[in-house]
């Protein structure tokens, strides 16, 4: 991103220098026409003096001292000086922008997490303070300078020669018709190769609703975050670390074209802390749908005879399940029916080989079955067998089981007898689990 901006600014600076030099040459000549010439005044006075001495009244009456400069010259100089101001302003802002970009990429040290957060925080402030918009607007300022230069040229030639004026006007008009068309056409034809920085901003301003234009059928993460963000990086002295982590992950799976990078970013959601407070940023960025698709890619769908799913990567599928469980917390979202069969396949894995994977899959099933107490009892069964030593579950999996069980308790609409029966089953198991984990250093997370 910064490399592309630096290249664009370098081109702008070169063109600005050449244009300013050419424009200055024109201004030097035109400005002299606006200031009264002492030589012309002297010649007029000499002619008048000769006429008086020779008593040639006809010659004396025909001689006049120039008093004012034609209005046309004033207009030309005003337009060209404005064009020079726009050109030099472009150069000034371009130099400032290069300094901003240089400070955006300092040498950082520390852990990968620290460097990632530093990079993401700088990126968020870069967006919040509209640095991309400023850099993208620099060519527009130079285009305005060119337009003013052409306008002054036409005014200067208007009374000199009509043919030259008309030919120049036609060339300028065709050039700017093409310029405006190159900006407008991509608004309605998204596959048009004409690309301009201002087009993206016009598309957002003109088509606020994605359904209003086929161009906005898929909205980028940047536009979503601008509309749905609950913070403004410009007015936060220290942006929440959770928001930084969430936007960094969202940036990865929204902007990257590498499927492996996208998959890793989605799986990383499974490792977010239990008290993570910025899950809404990930949901708004479309993480839930991508996770469901990534989970489906962990299986091979055989359609030769009927429809059979074959597990390809159990550990990766479990990470997608955990990420899905974190994102749907408190939303009431249910597992998609189209991929419920691979979820059941994951749930029925051999407990002696994949106990954590099967338990995580059971959590996803339970959270999608609030109207059935059987799936919730299965969670208690996993906790009970883990407490008795029948199977070995990681502490993370046990926390996920307990969290899922609590989520189900909150959302249950079961008969009172079933709820009481479940509580009577749950209390001894939970007490046994807590007794076994109270000596662990991270037991407070449960």
From TrEMBL:
Q: Which UniProt keywords apply?
A: Membrane, Transmembrane, Transmembrane helix
Q: Where is the DUF6535 domain?
A: 1-159
Q: What transmembrane ranges does the database entry give?
A: 12-32, 44-63, 75-97, 134-157, 169-189
Keyword Membrane carried by entry: yes
Query: What is the protein named?
Result: DUF6535 domain-containing protein
């Amino acid at each position: 991103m910064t490399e592309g901006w630096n290249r664009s600014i370098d081109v702008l600076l070169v063109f600005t220098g050449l244009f300013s030099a050419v424009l200055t040459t024109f201004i030097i000549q035109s400005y002299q026409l606006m200031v009264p010439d002492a030589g012309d005044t002297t010649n007029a006075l000499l002619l008048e003096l000769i006429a008086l001495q020779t008593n040639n009244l006809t010659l004396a009456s025909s001689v006049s001292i120039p008093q004012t400069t034609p209005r046309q010259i004033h207009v030309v100089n005003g337009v060209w000086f404005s064009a020079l101001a726009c050109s030099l302003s472009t150069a000034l802002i371009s130099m400032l922008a290069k300094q901003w970009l240089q400070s955006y990429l300092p040498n950082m040290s520390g852990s990968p997490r620290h460097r990632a957060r530093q990079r993401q925080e700088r990126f968020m402030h870069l967006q919040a303070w509209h640095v991309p918009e400023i850099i993208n607007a620099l060519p527009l300022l130079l285009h305005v300078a060119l337009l003013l230069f052409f306008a002054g040229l036409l005014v200067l030639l208007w009374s000199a020669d009509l043919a030259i004026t008309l030919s120049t006007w036609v060339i300028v008009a065709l050039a700017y018709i093409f310029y405006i068309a190159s900006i407008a056409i991509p608004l309605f034809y998204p596959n048009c190769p004409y690309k301009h920085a201002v087009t993206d901003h016009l598309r957002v301003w003109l088509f606020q609703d994605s359904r209003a234009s086929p161009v906005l059928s898929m909205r980028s993460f940047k536009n979503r975050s601008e509309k749905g963000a609950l913070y403004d990086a410009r007015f936060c002295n220290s942006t929440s670390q959770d928001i930084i982590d969430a936007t960094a992950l969202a940036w990865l799976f929204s902007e990257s074209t590498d499927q492996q990078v996208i998959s890793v970013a989605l799986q990383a959601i499974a490792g977010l802390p239990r008290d993570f407070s910025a899950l809404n940023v990930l949901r708004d960025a479309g993480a839930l749908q991508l996770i469901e698709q990534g989970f489906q890619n962990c299986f091979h769908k055989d359609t030769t005879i009927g429809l059979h799913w074959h597990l390809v990567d159990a550990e990766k599928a479990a990470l997608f399940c955990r990420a899905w469980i974190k994102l749907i917390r408190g939303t009431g979202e249910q597992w998609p029916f189209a991929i419920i069969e691979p979820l059941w396949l994951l749930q029925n894995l051999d407990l002696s080989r994949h106990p954590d994977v099967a338990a995580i899959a059971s959590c996803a099933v339970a959270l999608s079955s609030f109207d059935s107490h059987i799936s919730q009892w299965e969670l208690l069964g996993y906790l009970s067998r883990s407490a008795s030593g029948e199977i070995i579950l990681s502490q993370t999996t046990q926390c996920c089981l307990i969290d899922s069980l609590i989520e189900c308790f909150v959302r249950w609409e079961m008969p009172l007898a079933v709820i009481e029966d479940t509580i009577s089953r749950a209390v001894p198991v939970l007490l046994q689990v807590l007794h076994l984990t109270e000596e662990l250093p991270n037991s407070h997370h449960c």
